[in-house]
User: Fold this.
Amino acid sequence: MVSWATFIETAPPSDHAVQVYGLLDELVQSVVRYLEAGFAMGSPAIVIATEEHRRRFSRELEARSVESAVFEREGLLTYRNAEETLNALMDNGLPSAERFEETVAILFEEVAARFPGRTIRAFGEMVDLLWRRGDEQAAVAVEDLWNLLARRRPFALLCGYRLDIFDVDIQRTALPDVLGAHNHARLAADTSRLAAAVDRALTEVVGARRAGRIYLEVAEQVPRGPVPRAQAVLAWLSAEDPLLAESILERVRSHYAAVPVQRL
Assistant:
């Protein structure tokens, strides 16, 4: 399994990644690095984002001397408004496979035709809009449509979800579905800092001996996958003992915030 940094740089075809973020700067850094790496090798990009986020991405690209306006004119960069695109594919409260074909799939076919043999790098946040409206069923359905499209038209896809990973309810109800739909995940701007914060909080709340047993139980019960081990511990605790998890998450939030972020 490739690392997050490797995904951002190489964006293998058919890979489906998710950036979970609390602050917009975290999302901007990942998306801009992802787009910039693609432009450097001549890969086209499709960005389906809110207008606010589109402006932030463009400003950051310009700050890195990446002329996004030029790439747009040349067809290498294609923006679509996330709210408008989402509205176009919804039918009676659920995404329509037919409308997805007419609004999203056809766009990918057009870009692929202009750049044959190159992997499209896509970013989308329609799912995040649905999730923030409380429409989890529709969000999962959109993720499924993305995965179906990827089987026919190989492309790399980065999704963004604004979720508070230090909230026990998010850990219990939202993250399992979000992480289950992706094969790469980044849940914090600095995963090493998150791991240190989890380790410190566990030791403070339950003691070193029980903390060690928790790590062992997680290792035995949770298969290794795209989720960092620190997040696996938080998810396991949230499912097994929500009250304990709430206490630990409060401390993790505090410890994580106390250390400067190490960017990608």
Observations:
- The chain has 13 helices and eight strands.
- The chain has a mean pLDDT of 92.
- The two ends are 18 Å apart (CA to CA).
